[in-house]
Amino acid sequence: MAEETIFGKIIRKEIPADIVYQDDLVTAFKDIDPQAPTHILIIPNKAIATVDDVTEADEPALGRMFTVAAKLAREAGIAESGYRLLVNCRDDGGQEVYHLHMHLVGGRRLGRMLQRQS
Ligand code: 5GP
After folding, report:
1. What is the 80 CA–ligand 1 centroid distance (Å)?
2. pTM, two decimal places
3. Taking the domain 6-106, which CATH number applies?
4. Is 49 in the pocket of ligand 1 (CB under 6 A)?
5. Ligand 1 atom with least separation from CA of 86
6. Fewer CB in 10 Å around end: N or C, the chain?
């Protein structure tokens, strides 16, 4: 089992967060430091630390993260203009919170995904 993080407390509503969706498998809430007009985090309710820790048993929750992302993007009015789904893994990926999460980012032009290394 992954170590407890602040996201576990958000799932259980022990600390405040702007939760925009929750069901038996996933929870979605607004990022505290938004990088775009829409910036929502979608997380499995199970504490999976990183992408490297997922198993086949997690596939229902991982699939639900995508269907919920698409639903929330439609609700935010960015489905047609487009958006980005991002999952960071460990240090080089820039992961800060070790509870697997998908960023749903949109509402402005996001540019290239990665800086070119020239
Ligand atoms: P990472 O860098 O791990 O992929 O992204 C972690 C994200 O979690 C960051 O975008 C950060 O702003 C967000 N975050 C960290 N702590 C909190 C919190 O307590 N509440 C909310 N809503 N977002 C958080």
Report:
1. 26
2. 0.96
3. 3.30.428.10
4. no
5. 4
6. C
